[in-house]
Amino acid sequence: MMTRQEAVAACLEFPFAYEDHPFDDHNWTVMRHQGNKKIFAAIFQREGRMWINVKAEPLAGDFWRRTYPAVVPAYHMNKTHWISIILDGTMSDREILRLIQDSFTLTAPKQRRKTTENTPNGAKKED
Q1: Which residues, 6+ apart, have CB-to-CB distance to 94 below 8 Å?
Q2: Separation of alpha carbons 62 and 70, rounded Å
Q3: pTM: predicted TM-score of the whole model, two decimal places
Q4: Which of 19, 49, 96, 101 has the most CB atoms lying inside 10 A of its own CB?
Q5: Are the C-beta atoms of 74 and 39 separated by less than 8 Å?
Q6: Hey, how many other C-beta atoms are within 10 angstroms of the C-beta on 108?
Q7: 83 forms bridges with which residues in the sheet?
Q8: How far apart are CA 56 and CA 95, in angstroms?
Q9: Nearest alpha-carbon partner for 28 in 4, 6, 10
């Protein structure tokens, strides 16, 4: 995975994902969830290479940054919860897809839980 088109295509494989261009800067492509509109990947060119910002659990982000020079603190985002992947060919597509999948999961719409409450006669009622 080296191009914007390849990165966008990989992100669009996830259910209910869509491509957006919310900034005046056409360099930025963001991938969002349809359900909550949250960004799970930001794709952009910087320093002659394509980059992808993805959300990561802090400890996982630290692991990936220590393991791969192509993974750095996120450009223009919270550096505790986001990492940048430089698409320079040093990481396999499988590893990049894993990081995108993790970001997709972390930003996915929350599932509503059924709530129970007691009715006046003591029986449980489900919504």
Answers
A1: none
A2: 13
A3: 0.84
A4: 96
A5: no
A6: 16
A7: 54, 73
A8: 13
A9: 4
Whether 50 contacts 9, CB under 8 Å:
no
- pLDDT tens for 30-65 read 999 999 999 999 999 999 999 999 999 999 999 999
Cα separation of 67 and 88, whole Å? 15
Domains of the chain, start order = 4-110 (3.90.1150.30)
Nearest to 1 by CA among 49, 38, 47, 46: 49
Beta bridge partners of 118: 124
- The mean per-residue pLDDT over the stretch 25-32 comes to 95
The one-character DSSP state at 126 is E
Task: Provide the CA 86 distance to its chain's centre, in angstroms.
Answer: 15
- Provide the pLDDT for residue 118: 56
| 34 token code pair | 């349809």
Phi and psi (nearest 5°) for 99?
-65, -40
